[in-house]
Write a structure and sequence with these properties.
Blueprint (H helix, E strand, L loop, with lengths): L2 H24 L27 H23 L7 H27 L20 H9 L2 H28 L7 H31 L2
Helix pairs in contact: 1-6, 2-3, 2-5, 3-6, 4-5, 5-6
Length: about 210
């Protein structure tokens, strides 16, 4: 399936999910918002407000840290002998995720919510690398760096997809227009990038035989 078709299907599916949730919400009373399954920034204050839930806030807070680690990984590429194709991919990820971090921080500020700082950059979210894995990537060079980067970044992106899924599974979450647009973009874009990375990884493995 092509990335474009995948993007279209993902957005259609998520839109249908939100529409169903919205209709259901109209027929039942609003319940007290609970934390999403992953509470990685639970020490940060988070509250609901007009049009958004605690789960929405937690999603943004957690995704900032998640993106920050992806940027840390992309920053290694140039100094670790990455191939031209991987450098191009790393630059794309770096630019898009820096822009998205700025957007998420602004979203939180506008709603008077806590913005994660450096102290929360190492919190573990789905798919994130632990200290040993980061050290392993940092020690790699050339083709080995390419292979590890792709394997780790695919896992990292899959973690982001899990976070999106958990957001939309939370009661009344994901219905703010900014949240919905951002979450569906994250889902579609990272699926596209996984598709690209899997193809690059297959090439590397075949050339290593």
């Amino acid at each position: 399936m092509s990335p474009t078709l995948t993007r279209t299907l993902v957005r259609a599916t998520l839109a249908a999910t939100i529409a169903t949730s919205a209709c259901a919400a109209q027929t039942r009373p609003v319940v007290q918002q609970t934390e999403p399954h992953h509470q990685h920034t639970a020490d940060l204050p988070a509250s609901s407000g007009t049009g958004f839930t605690v789960a929405d806030v937690r999603f943004m807070q957690n995704m900032i840290g998640h993106h920050a680690q992806a940027i840390r990984m992309t920053e290694m590429a140039a100094a670790h002998g990455a191939s031209p194709k991987l450098l191009e991919l790393a630059r794309k990820i770096d630019i898009s995720q820096r822009d998205e971090i700025a957007m998420m921080e602004q979203w939180l500020v506008e709603r008077r919510q806590a913005v994660p700082g450096a102290a929360h950059a190492h919190a573990m979210m789905p798919g994130m690398l632990n200290a040993d894995q980061l050290a392993q990537l940092d020690a790699a060079r050339g083709r080995e760096f390419d292979r590890l980067f792709l394997e780790f970044m695919i896992r990292h992106h899959q973690g982001a997809l899990q976070m999106v899924e958990e957001l939309f599974a939370s009661p009344h979450a994901g219905q703010d227009s900014d949240i919905f647009r951002f979450a569906t973009d994250v889902d579609a874009d990272q699926r596209d990038e996984i598709f690209v990375m899997e193809k690059l990884l297959v090439t590397i493995r075949e050339e290593s035989k």
